[in-house]
Specification:
single chain; alpha/beta; Rossmann fold; 2 domains; seven-stranded mixed beta sheet; six-stranded mixed beta sheet; 15 helices; globular
Length: 375
C-alpha cells in the first residue's frame, strides 16, 4: 500500500471539486439576512470585481446591504464602487442580526466578528488566486497537469506528513476558493519553531525586513543573547526609517537600504510603506538592488529568510555562493508567483542536495504566507 501511495501523481491527490463560489452564493441567498462586506481595500476589490460582479455571470451578482470597515477618517466620506462605507460598530446597530462576507484577513477583526452577538455567519472566499489572470500567482488545473511530474517529485521530497498535507491544501484552496483547506494545516508560529532549530551563534539575514517584525521575533526566539549578527535588508524608504530606529537599540545589527536581486543594478520599486512594497515595472521610484553574496562579502550566514513579494528566486540566485559555501537554513515564501513551488525548490536543490524540505502555512483564512523551509 505504501509503495503504491508513493507512486501516485500529485494531481491525482487533489480535489475534483469545482469553484466553491456558486455554493457560497447559494448559502448567502438562503440565509436571507442582511449582508455586510467587511473591508474596502485591495482584497475586497479583488473579491468583488473579479469574482462577485462579473457582467457575464449574473448569477454571481451580490448586493451588500452595508460595506463596513473598523474605522474611517474623520470628516471624510469614503466610497467603495459608489456605495458609502460605514464604520462597523455604527452600521450594525441598525440591524437585529447580519451575515458578513470577509473582504480582509486581519485576525483581530475576524476574532471580533466571531464573538459579536449580531453576526450569524461569516463567509469566506479565497480570491487571491482565482479569477484574476493579472496576478503573478494565477494558475489553473491545466498548469498543474502540465507540471505534474515536477510537482510529484517535490511532493515526494517533502520530509513530513504536515508538509505534504499543506501542499495538497494549498492547491485545493486555490482551485476551489474554499477557505476551509488552510484551517486543516495552519501553523501559528512562523520562522523560528519546528522545523527550524536555532543555534547559539546565528547569523540571521532578513530579506524584506519591513519595520523589524521578524527581527523582533528572532530576538524573542534567541532570548536576545544567542546570536552572532543580524543583517536586515529593506528597500522601502519608509519602512527603513522605522527599521533604523529599531536597530539603534540592538547590538550586532546591520541595516541595509537595498533590495535583494541576482545582480547589482537599479530597479523600479513600489514604495508603499507597507508589507507589500515590491519591485515592479510600474514602480514610482528607483531603488538600488544587490546580491546577498555581495552584501555579505564572503561572510557566512546561518539562516536566510525571504518574503520579498516575488523577488525570491532572483535573490536566491544572488545568494548562490553563500548557500553553496555555508548551507544556511532557508525560509522562503513560495506563494507570490504561480511557479514558485516548481522553480524555488529545484534551484535550492541544485545548489546543495543535502537540504531537507518542509512546507508550512502561516496565515488564514487565505493562503498567504506559504513558506518553504530548507534545513
Amino acid at each position: 500500500m505504501l509503495y503504491r501511495e508513493h507512486f501516485m501523481t500529485f494531481t491525482s491527490r487533489l480535489t475534483d471539486k469545482g469553484d466553491y463560489l456558486p455554493e457560497l452564493i447559494d448559502k448567502i441567498h438562503r440565509s436571507n439576512l442582511p449582508l455586510f462586506l467587511y473591508g474596502a481595500g485591495k482584497y475586497a476589490n479583488m473579491l468583488c470585481v473579479n469574482c462577485l460582479w462579473k457582467k457575464d455571470e449574473p448569477n454571481q451578482q451580490i448586493k451588500f446591504d452595508e460595506i463596513v470597515v473598523s474605522t474611517l477618517p474623520e470628516n471624510k466620506d469614503v466610497f467603495f464602487h459608489g456605495q458609502m462605507v460605514k464604520e462597523f460598530d455604527q452600521a450594525v446597530n441598525e440591524y437585529p442580526s447580519i451575515n458578513v462576507l470577509a473582504g480582509l484577513s486581519l485576525e483581530p477583526v475576524l476574532d471580533k466578528l466571531k464573538k459579536h452577538p449580531k453576526v450569524r455567519n461569516i463567509f469566506f472566499y479565497d480570491a487571491t488566486f482565482r479569477g484574476n489572470n493579472d496576478l503573478m500567482c494565477h494558475f489553473s488545473r491545466n498548469f498543474l497537469l502540465e507540471n505534474d511530474h515536477e510537482l510529484t517529485s517535490f511532493y515526494n521530497d517533502l520530509e513530513d506528513e504536515l508538509s505534504r498535507k499543506t501542499m495538497i491544501a494549498f492547491f485545493n484552496q486555490h482551485l476551489t476558493g474554499n477557505c476551509e483547506y488552510v484551517d486543516e494545516v495552519f501553523v501559528n508560529n512562523q520562522y523560528f519553531t519546528d522545523p527550524v532549530k536555532l543555534r547559539d551563534d546565528e547569523i540571521f539575514v532578513d530579506c524584506g525586513a519591513y519595520t523589524g517584525d521578524t527581527v523582533n521575533a528572532f530576538l524573542r526566539a534567541t532570548k536576545e543573547r544567542k546570536y552572532e549578527h543580524i543583517f536586515s535588508i529593506e528597500p522601502d524608504t519608509l519602512n527603513f526609517k522605522e527599521l533604523l530606529k529599531l536597530g539603534s537599540a540592538i547590538p550586532r545589527f546591520t541595516c541595509i537600504n537595498k533590495g535583494t536581486w541576482n545582480e547589482k543594478t537599479i530597479l523600479k520599486f513600489s514604495n508603499d510603506g507597507n508589507t507589500t512594497s515590491t519591485i515592479s515595472q510600474n514602480g514610482e521610484i528607483q531603488v538600488e538592488v544587490d546580491t546577498i553574496d555581495n552584501m555579505l562579502n564572503g561572510q557566512s550566514a546561518t539562516y536566510i529568510k525571504m518574503d520579498i513579494e516575488g523577488a525570491e528566486l532572483p535573490s536566491l540566485i544572488g545568494a548562490e555562493k553563500t548557500i553553496r559555501n555555508y548551507k544556511p537554513k532557508l525560509a522562503i515564501s513560495v506563494y507570490h508567483k504561480y511557479d514558485d513551488l516548481l522553480t524555488i525548490p529545484q534551484y535550492i536543490k541544485s545548489l546543495n542536495n543535502g537540504y531537507k524540505f518542509y512546507l508550512r502555512a502561516h496565515d488564514k483564512p487565505y493562503f498567504f504566507d506559504l513558506v518553504l523551509y530548507a534545513v
